[in-house]
Design a protein that fits this description.
Blueprint lengths: L1 H10 L1 H13 L15 H5 L13 H4 L11 E8 L2 E7 L7 E3 L8 E7 L7 E8 L3 E5 L12 E16 L4 E23 L5 E11 L3 E9 L4 E8 L2 E13 L12 E9 L2 E9 L4 E10 L6 E6 L9 E4 L5 E10 L5 E10 L17 E11 L4 E12 L2 E4 L6 E18 L1
Antiparallel strand pairs: 1-4, 1-23, 2-3, 2-23, 4-5, 5-7, 6-7, 7-8, 8-9, 8-10, 9-12, 10-11, 11-14, 12-13, 13-16, 14-15, 15-18, 16-17, 18-19, 19-20, 20-21, 21-23, 22-23
Length: about 425
């Protein structure tokens, strides 16, 4: 891996500096749920199908076993999406109160590099930096559910060094270790009022660390037209050992009950098992499908342990009881010329949130996605990718068992994306 970095830095210092600067300093969150499926622009154009397809270096995320089948000796690719989410709340009938989440734009980013010492080598090595999970939802401070949530944000960053081995012309295996980090931010109203009638506010924030996880995959060419891939990305546990809990705008008579303190918590990001296929109808037309099985059951409880408890500040143990869920994906690719490729796709994303657990913090529902994309080849070494995603959430009504907060939620999101691939 060290030799990979030396080679890339020697030949592309300005490109890499720009990419890493962008990655490190641009906000990478997304509203509405925290499972991001935006890791490859080519795959995104085909509904994020990629487990049985070898597009570019981003294959190390979708299936490390397929990385050894890359035609090029060395390549890098990077991409970013611009996400425009919309989420609306309607109180139960006969009420007419409505509220919309504060509008925001998010920009998740991914970077991948693949390298082998010579073109005939059976070994490939690579590096991926990406954000598979993230969330940002913000409501007006005085909205009806302010004591449940005003704003919540989760950011995760995965760094995945990967190795792949081509056993023969039909079979490849691979795996990578995942280094994970992130941060957590939550802001909500406190039901105590000052003389001017304003409510207090609690803010929790902290840096997360992890022991990491892994990504392993197998790629098999059944025939010259049919390919199968299997991938497993393990669960990753994020720990916040020393977060900061701040309380503001609290009446002086109650300030002793809401003194700023520290807290600890943890969140397990779910595992994802995927079975994928791709089939070439001819030299120009390919169809692909992926089935994801997401281990959301690991998100059972949101627990927050405050270092200093009072009569009005108790530890939080809030049930989530998520269920494991499926995502079904179908995509197609057509290359009318050697320089232009177009893609379309659709998917169905099953919600892991059970009835009785839908809340403004995670107002999840079944979703349908429609995608499109294109790749333009500008020369022997350079390709430009573009994608577009439309997510439509199916309207969902529920009453949260824990708080009895009821309502109907509707979500929609649009996400154009752009990417670049350089082969050398």
């Amino acid at each position: 891996m060290f030799f990979l970095f030396l080679l890339l830095m020697k030949r592309f210092p300005y490109i890499l500096f720009s990419l890493f600067f962008y990655f490190c300093f641009i906000n990478q969150t997304v509203a509405g749920g925290f499972h991001l499926n935006l890791q490859g622009q080519k795959q995104l154009g085909m509904a994020h199908c990629g487990t049985a397809s070898v597009f570019d270096a981003s294959v190390l995320f979708f299936n490390p076993g397929a990385m050894s089948f890359l035609d090029s000796t060395n390549s890098i690719c990077a991409g970013s999406n611009f996400i425009f989410p919309r989420l609306a709340y309607l109180e139960p009938s006969p009420g007419i109160y409505t509220s919309e989440m504060v509008k925001n734009i998010s920009t998740p980013f991914s970077f991948y590099a693949a390298f082998k010492f010579k073109k005939t080598s059976k070994w490939n090595m690579g590096l991926g930096i990406y954000t598979p999970f993230g969330s940002h939802a913000q409501w007006e401070n005085d909205w009806k559910g302010q004591f449940l949530i005003r704003e919540i944000e989760l950011r995760s960053f995965f760094i995945q060094p990967t190795f792949s081995y081509k056993i023969n012309d039909k079979l490849g295996i691979g795996g990578g270790y995942v280094f994970a980090t992130g941060d957590f931010y939550l802001r909500k109203g406190v039901p105590v009022q000052n003389m001017d009638g304003t409510y207090g506010e609690a803010t929790l924030k902290g840096k997360a660390n992890s022991k990491g996880g892994y990504n392993v995959g197998l790629y098999y060419a059944c025939t010259k037209k049919l390919y199968v891939g299997i991938d497993y990305r393990s669960a990753v546990k994020l720990n916040i050992p020393a977060g900061e809990a701040l309380f503001e705008n609290i009446p002086s008579s109650l300030s002793s009950y809401f003194a700023s303190t520290s807290f600890s918590t943890q969140l397990t990001l779910p595992s994802v098992a995927t079975l994928g296929t791709s089939y070439f109808l001819n030299d120009k037309f390919k169809i692909a499908s992926d089935i994801n099985y997401v281990g959301w059951k690991s998100y059972d409880t949101l627990s927050i342990d405050f270092a200093a408890n009072t009569d009005k500040l108790a530890d939080v143990n809030s049930a989530r009881s998520y269920s494991n869920s499926f995502v079904f994906r179908l995509g197609a690719e057509y290359s009318p010329t050697k320089k232009i490729t177009v893609r379309i796709g659709t998917y169905f994303d099953q919600s892991p949130v059970k009835n009785g657990f839908v809340s403004p913090e995670s107002p999840d529902m079944n979703k349908i996605g429609f995608t499109a994309g294109t790749t333009v080849t500008l020369g022997q070494h350079l390709k430009i990718d573009a994608s577009f995603l439309w997510i439509e959430g199916l309207k969902r009504s529920d009453t949260t068992l824990e708080t009895q907060f009821a309502g109907t939620y509707k979500v929609r999101a649009l996400s154009p994306g752009i990417g670049i691939e350089y082969v050398f």
